[in-house]
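Trying the structure run again after the queue cleared.
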Amino acid sequence: MSNYDIERIKSLFGTHEDFPQKGIVFKDVFPVFQDPTAVEALIANIVHHINSTYQEKIDAVVGLDARGFLFGPLVALRLGAAFVPVRKRGKLPGECAQATYVKEYGEDIFEMQQSALKEGARVIIIDDLIATGGSAGAAGQLVKKCGGVTVEYVFIMELDFLNGSKTLDAPVYSLVHL
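Done. Tokens:
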């Protein structure tokens, strides 16, 4: 992706101070969706990165609740892979695996349906942002519990100063570093 595209996408991010609580500066990816060309550039870049980095087929894209649901299905479709949601506790039917994580402003529990991945499935985990790595790490735990293998974590933006990518168990690709 060209520097122009990256700078254009960065310029579309919203910034909200003291959200969801005082002291947090929230980076908002939703404004990117007001520009279809920017969304196309994001998806094309991610798919190109995955296809040029990994020769073996990706079996599933796991998207984190909720912004991973925006990008994950689009990437999965282009890769010819399944899309698997990771949701907050109590939002998925059937038997679910659980993982607890600490985020920069609290604690939460993620779930994934136990039957969502085939044994040995090669998985990309996707979300809009990595901060401390807590939610992504929990998704990685769920992939393992459900029989899959995390090939890579993919993020639209990474808050480098929080070092979240260093806490994860697979390589990390982030389009924008903040």
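The longest strand covers residues 149-158. Worth checking whether this holds up in the mutant runs.
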